[in-house]
Specification:
heterotetramer, A alpha/beta, B mainly alpha, C alpha+beta, D mainly alpha, A: alpha/beta, 4-stranded antiparallel β-sheet, 13 helices, 12 strands, 21% strand, B: mainly alpha, two-stranded antiparallel sheet, 11 helices, disordered N terminus, ATP hydrolysis activity (chain A), membrane (chain A), ATP binding (chain A), ABC_transporter-like_ATP-bd (chain A), ATP-binding (chain A)
Amino acid sequence: MSLLEITDLKTYYRASDGWVRATDGVSLSVDRGETVGLVGESGSGKTTLAKSIIRLFPKNAEIVDGSINYDGTEITELTDRQLRKQIRWSEISMIPQNAMNGFDPVYTVGSQIVEVIRYHEDDTSKKEARKRARELFNELGIDPDRIDDYPHQFSGGMAQRAMIALALCLSPNIILADEPTTALDVVIQDRILETIKEKQREIDSAMIMITHDMSVVSETCDRIAVVYGGRVVEIADAETIMMSPRHPYTLGLRNAFPDISDEDKDLISIPGTPPDLVDPDEGCRFAPRCPFATEECWEVTPEAEDYGDGHMVECHRADEIEYLQEEAAKKETWMEQEIGRPDETPPEVTSDD
Amino acid sequence: MSTETNSPVTRLFDGVANSARFIRDKFEAFEGDRLGQIGLVILATFIFIGIFARPITIDFLNITIPGLAPHDPTATRVGGRLEPPSLEHPLGTTVLGRDVFSQLIAGTRVTLLVGSLAAFMAVFIGTNIGLVSAYFGGWVDDVLMRITDIVYAVPFLPFAIVLVAILGSSIVNIIVAIVLVLWRSTARVIRSQVLSHKQRPYVESAEAIGASHVRIMYLHILPNVLPLAFLYAAFAVGWAVIAEASLSFLGFGDPTMLSWGEMIFNVYTADAIRVAWWWVFPPGIAIMLFVMSVFFIGRTLEKVVNPELRHQE
Amino acid sequence: MAFRKKNRREFIRAAGATGLAIGVAGCSSNGDGNGNGVSGAEELGEQIRELNFVVPTSGVNQFRNELANMVAANWREIGIDVDFEELDFSAHVDKAVVQQDFDASLLGWGGTPERIDPHTFIYDMHHSDNMGEGGRNTPGYSNPEYDELAELQVTQPDEEERQQTVYEAQEIIARDQPRAYIANEGGIHPYASGRITGIEPTLGEGLNSFWNMISVEPLEGDTVTMGYPSEIISLNPMQDLATPDRQFVRLIYDQLFRIGTDGLPTPWAAADEPEIEDGGRTYTVEIRDGMTFHDGEDLTIDDVEFTYNLYADSPTYGSLVDVIGEIETSGNEITFHLEEEYAPFVANVLGQVYLFPEHIWGDVEPEELSDFEDENWVGSGPFMFEDWERQSELQLRAFDDHFNPPNTERFIRIPGSDVAQQFGALESGSIDFIGAIPQPTALARIDEDDDLDGADFEDIGYVKIAYNMRREPFDNVNFRRALSYCVPKTEYVDFVRDGMGTVTHSTISEHNEFWHNPDVEEFDEDLDAARAELEEGGFGWDDDGALHFGADQ
Amino acid sequence: MGLREYVIRRLLQLVVTFWAFFTLLFVLFRLVPGDPTSMFILDGMTPEQREQRIAELGLDQPLHVQYVEYISQLLTGDFGQSFIYREPVIDIIIVRFMNTIVLMGTALFFAYLIGLTFGALMGWWRGSKFERGGIVVTLAARSSPEFWVGIVLLSVFVFWLGWFPSGGMRTTGGELGGGFLARYGSTDFLRHLFLPALTGAIVFMATPTLLMRNTMLDVLNADFIEIKKAEGLPERTVLYRHAARNSVLPIVTVMAIATGAAMGGSVVIETVFNWPGMGREMVRAVNSNDYPVAMAAFFLMGSVVIIMNFLADLAYVYLDPRVEYE
């Protein structure tokens, strides 16, 4: 039994023109101590998926179906109070994208750490809580005296470390890290990632790392789930995703980031934008942007298929892996005019075949 | 060389393009914004009434467009004393038998005049002070902002009353009094906006080219803060109209210009509030509607200037 | 745009057919249709310049503001450009009376009881001695023939003789029209007949009169509350006092004589009429026995003598008693020796000097007098000062030891922002009467409300337009007379004031029956007559109807 | 720059502002036509009396002499003597000032109490009918001049329903003077206070309502609010300790300015309700050329704004740690 077991989760938003299916039938499991990466462009639904785990979404959103089982507790069935007291932060905490905005600007960083410790641990005195905050600062490489500083007095990297301290202060079992380093410059990024990994191992917690950056996940994650259009389109261990992905979207994403092994490689981005998730039609949601889409892709929603070792892929053409990988590496494949519904502009791939 | 000759021209074009885009945005912003649309309709109606309130004679064409007001608003005894509304006098008559409906229509002009002139001048002054203050900084900024502080300490109505007592109560003096106080908020806002623009690369590059201060301020920075000035102008119209009405109500209005505020002052001094509801309510409601329409429009413009607001609606 | 006042002529031209025609009568004399387009003088000189017409704002006086508008419209009608200038009271007085920087000025002149004696209206207002800055003779009227009469009447102790002189004087100024005398603005003062009784409105003052305040009586309780649209400045009799102040100072302080309800001085603190000897140059007065001040001290003949010396020393009021040469006292009598004959001595001096307690004011330096503050305002009058909070209320209490105690135990005066606001308070019952004329709209409400009534009174003061005779073309008598023919006096009284008040043509009101000359020349709205006057004066009109001097002028 | 230097610097600016403000006033009032004797001329003041009075008041002195004299007088805390009443200005003005402060203070208090609550709710229920209706109502109130609101309230509550007195500050004939509580604590006073204060509250309410709604929206969208929720803190804590605390910042500045507007607007409300306040006194003083009183009234109104602005700045330093002492 995994620590966290998400089954067929559907989180929808009410919008003026219908339901936005931000998470639409996602299943995912996370083991103790494991790091799972959620990768996708912005708007793909990865953040909603992660926040659904602690039911942290606006008033107009709700989990319409599915289950989130955390260590035997069904999170979807908890009352708000139980959720707050038992799950949030004490079991599952988070590190936001921009730490600077993650702290309330009008209170000192230390007081905000103390606030959360004292809320969850009734018998911890203020003094003890402060002591723990200082220790955490020390461990994370910040001068402990700075707990009395205000957020704006920290540099970006320091603020992110302070945020990590906040996320770790209750030794949670799962940390939701939402693009924890994108706001920072590259040199600091690595050091912060290292720090996170180190602390994670120390307290043996699992982590869900949300990012659009393939290079970040490849270094830090055990397994990677690729999210598109509110669904997990491909999931496998990090190496498989990086070396031999089967989904065209994963291929495209990989193209968009520099390859550590091949410095000369051109960066290719996927044309188009993520789909509108308001009441989507049948068919693969990636089809409109996919250079390999066939008639079937437009008509039939692909089911997840298992390719061994937990490598699940939702694609009709996942079997043609060599061809796909070869073609996807070419820049021309991703030219915008090459893509579209077959009957409008027939893509070469199909006529060639 | 090419950049040097190019730069002012392109900047100018950019400025024009910017304004064009702003105006287009403005109208786009009204789409789907019910309040903004209502505001536009009300304002357009008032403008129409204001323009055609009284007869207009075009000399060289030798034609006279008849006015909307059925009677001379100042003529006494066009009806009886304090007659309630009737077909002849849709809004009844005043204590000296003047036609309230005609007065209401004639008052629209004064309102439009005060609103537009005062707002334009206040925003013009405010924008320039804000621009100069932020652009030059240092002691210039210090002096101008201290002056702004002092103007902020001036309570508006008492100041206007004193000024009108000195200069006499004419519409021009009332506008002057309003303008002298109203520019302050625009100056502050424009200043902070310009401060942020000053740091941007395009200003640095203009400086590098050796453009003059005036050129940088008016050709490079101004087009970028103009939308904000527009917004403040919209609100200033509302405040100016309220200010004129309040002054008139206190008896400091221009005696030669019958405004809505002065109509209420007349009801008040004629001690007819309890008797002649038809004389009190129309001008009061007119003031409210007019200012509301301007505020509705301002709110919509605000979304153009500050697109973040759009997502919050 | 509402062109109500300014440049009406231009407006008419610009607007074309707008139905704005006003007073079309007499247009034909304007020469429309008789070929040459010019009437009046054979050849035209310079055009008459724009005239500066200083008038009160409608906030100061709505009635008079309307009147001014009508007058200005008529002046424009006969071809004169008018610069219509509305001013607040203080600015108006400063410009017209002090600076004398005006062409025509529309102001009122109050009809307080001490002005029932014709001296103020005849001498102060029209004698050439008083045409300096701030003087009463605002128009700068200077006519030796008239001056002689004005001086003569002061020295005539015989009332019949003096009446004849005053009659002649009135004829002369009616003929010369240094001012347009328009209307005596009597009217009604509203009161709650359901709450008070014994009201006694008098000539010129209505319910503000002294006699009313001591005779008014509450039907229930012990308090009468009076409303007045403005606040009292001071109760110090030695300060510069405005009319509302005087109306209360005289409740607290007594005089030797008071102006009676008939307008004639009657003995008050004096026991009897004065003994006049020496051809009107010696006045002897005996004071009433047993009078005391509010603090219980006796009022003696020494206090009276002290008072007159105090006035003589006062920088503010010294001139009032200038005419007194010497004062003697013996027993209960005080004798005044005058420097010269002064017919209105009883009304204007003995009736206006307030009696002071020497034990309170004795040590005050003359230049401190106007700043002196007697916290309890101790006088000997029928009311005692009780308490005062400015802009809130002034409370008085009856002085029971007075020889003529008031009928109400307490008297409260409430200042308000305006009459309209106070009328509301009268209706709601927080005020018992108002010392001001309400708007015509209130008249109907008085009729409808069983608890309310209006006290009618007439006025001897009037509203008038002063012509600045120091400047041309006002030095031309025909010009002034023509302007006076443009004043719609009847319209003003009947329509604008809804019948309150009376039209006047003389400086002495018809309600001042003894002194009023009913046979003076009359000027009411008549534009034809105005044009005829102008033609006679050698003026003429151009094609546009604008008024010009004749070429020979 | 440290806090202390900042405060000192602001204090110095305050002094300069005061001086400039005062000089402006002096010049302004000397330009008003007429002089303090104009009031009396028609009531019998002779030309000699007039000249005597002008000299007494020192108004025949050159302007700069009058200016220096007045400044030095003011430095000793003396507003001088009323030209008309001939009493110390302070005696005349202080009661009016208190009356105005009590009226406007009450109005502002309720305007902000209601406005902030209303605005916060509008922000909370964004997009709802309540919010949309609220905006229209608020803008309608903001579009109405004070006198208009006052007249409507008078018509309804006094003339029609007869629930409240039509004006004044208390029923007449009672004991005058008395302590603060005796003056402002009685039910009679509160009955008189209700309508004028309501008028002010309605007019002043719009600004805090709309501002609170906007800042609420901003703050509720802020990342840290989400973090605070993720931390498991109860909604109340998040709302009050974090969201509201941050929303208050812009309100503080606007409140200082609103106080100024309220002081200025008091003239109108006092006129409509015959309130014995400073605004009316100032109009009277201007009309009768009683400069010392008019200037003192104007000066006090301005001072309230200047001082409120100063306090707002200081409060900001305390409330928002991000403020730098520039």
